[in-house]
Amino acid sequence: MKIFAWTDLISDLLKIKEDSYQEFSQKLSPDNKVLGVRIPKVRKLALSYLKNCSQDELLLTPMSKEPYLEEKFCKAIFIARSKIDEKQRLIYIKEFLKSIDGWAICDGFCSELKSAKENQELYFSFVRKCFKTKSAPFTLRFACVMSLMYFCNQKYEDEIISFLDRINTKEYYVHMGVAWLIATLYTKNGPHILDKINEITLDDLTFNKAIQKITESNYISKEKKAEIRKLKRK
């Protein structure tokens, strides 16, 4: 079995980076160090390491002090795809949240955590705690994105909405995450969602962004979109 080192992985990433994509990706994630490797290629490389290296080494070896976005995404895949007990996975998830400082790695990590589908009670218990954080905007966004990907059903609907009551949406990426979550709740569960949202304290800017995202959906008729637009707050 191959001995794992982050320097080797970074060297492999450098071999498949694209300068033009680096410029594009850097604009989307200005606060992150970006090599310029397309996500499908990052995923393929990370999965090859999972196949050929010790799982414990992949999970326990610290990343470099200032990791690249692609490096973080590899770590996210190691955590999400390793064959480990789900409670142990949540320990790694909690630790990895400390290194999330951008929307791309936050949302990408959530999309990889597909085991949440089969372990909803366990994962939603963790998401509850994330919603209750006060000073970590990307932990809040993580809670929003996990909810819209895995918990937008009637079972969790009321509790999710209660978490949005007075949530700090002054943080841009939280603001966008909440709007996206509300729009997903609406498209999956129905128009009554907006009535419930109006019963909590949510700022006008975030509510209006949610309305915009709802009307961008391809699942809603033009007539219904016209009605929804009238609900925008002034």
From TrEMBL:
Membrane-crossing residue ranges in chain numbering: none
Pfam families noted in UniProt: DNA_alkylation
Domain of life of the native organism: Bacteria
Gene3D superfamilies membership: 1.25.10.90
PANTHER family the UniProt entry points to: ARMADILLO-TYPE FOLD, DNA ALKYLATION REPAIR PROTEIN
Protein's name according to its UniProt entry: 3-methyladenine DNA glycosylase AlkD
Protein source organism: Succinivibrio dextrinosolvens
